[in-house]
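FAQ: What does the model actually see?

It sees only this:
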Amino acid sequence: MTAITLVQGDITLQTADAIVNAANSSLLGGSGVDGAIHRRGGPAILEECRRLRASQYGKGLPTGQAVATTAGDLDARWVIHTVGPVYQVSGGDPTLLASCYRESLRVADALGARTVAFPAISTGVYRWPMEDAARIAVQTVRAAETEVEEVRFVLFDERAYTAFAAQLP
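And it is asked to produce this:
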């Protein structure tokens, strides 16, 4: 069974096999978690993202999917990029948000990652309501068949931490 832990802080400072990036579909960096991971991880992440765009993701990474790159200067082996749904655009479709977590864990398993750090996907500029996002994230991770031993939700502020903590027994 996968252990779920919560940390309030900066995901770019975590030590894990894989750090999940709440990426935009371009894979070329952005704001929030995406921008922070690209800045702290350095140019190696962007170089691999550009190669992915030039090959199989010419139109960008679809919402709910995940792909891995190097972690560059982060204290991890890989960054798993996943594109969360924009709440207003998706109509709040929980299957798209759940897919981000499931697909990230599938990629982690393929890589052999045992510890994975997740942000609260889609809760920033994509405006998914925090309590609902926390419920979907925790339920999806609990239901996933994965070899990942620890999923660590790294939550930027107290509001997010409290919402995720409410989902754990």
